[in-house]
Amino acid sequence: MTMGAVLVIGSGGGIGRAVAARLRADGWSVTGTDLPGIDLSRSGVVAPHVERLWDEHGGFDALVHAAGVFPAVPVAESDEDLFDRVFAVNTRSALSAGAQFVRCCRTGNRPGAMVFLSSGAALRARPGTAVYAASKAALDALVRGFALEHGRDGIRCTAVAPGFVDVGSALNPVPESYVDAVRAGSVQGRLGRPDDVAAVVAWLLGEDAGWVNGRTVPVDGGDGIGSVTAPSWLS
């Protein structure tokens, strides 16, 4: 069954690869892009890149933005360079890609669906994640803006907010001690997997989610509600 054509930005990352693989398995025609083909931290390159791929592939029915950087820096040690780099990749590039996708859809008078990769960090503070969390909270606001302004164009925009997913990223390395602590406190007793996130992305792009718009869906196994290793007065 052919589902349509989708552009996946960040297809080289752990979650991005899983999303691309799941969508191919579901019958989508997938075009993936990532470093070195596109540097999302650079200004003025994302929209032309999306437009070029649109023209080369005859348009897309969906866009997935699954790229991001996750530096761990104390908020008092964060600076403007860090802020600009994180927001450029996590937020500005999503805005540029989404806006160009909307323009192309409207020019071609065709509907579309977008899914952005947000994070539970947008709503939950952790030491060292303030700038990252701010970039994802801003991304959630963009999701609402796209949905509100272009729902009547037949364009939906949603996001997924994973909890921690250990993808072994060289770009965003995480100490093993942190991984172990997250696993120990998990509501379901395990870490999230890229396939967990990919399954929800696939659902959001499909017809069954046609009445879901402007929302960020938690995909965290319940970890956003609390931790089983939190202090307790129970004996």
TrEMBL record:
It comes from the Bacteria. Keywords: Oxidoreductase. Belongs to the short-chain dehydrogenases/reductases (SDR) family. CDD domains: SDR_c. The lineage of its organism: Bacteria, Bacillati, Actinomycetota, Actinomycetes, Pseudonocardiales. Pfam families: adh_short_C2 (PF13561). The keyword Methyltransferase does not apply. It is an enzyme of class 1 (oxidoreductase). InterPro entries: KR_dom, NAD(P)-bd_dom_sf, Sc_DH/Rdtase_CS, SDR_DHRS6-like, SDR_fam. Residues 4-168 form the Ketoreductase domain. This is 3-oxoacyl-[acyl-carrier protein] reductase. GO terms for molecular function: 3-oxoacyl-[acyl-carrier-protein] reductase (NADPH) activity. Its EC number is 1.1.1.100. The keyword Oxidoreductase applies.
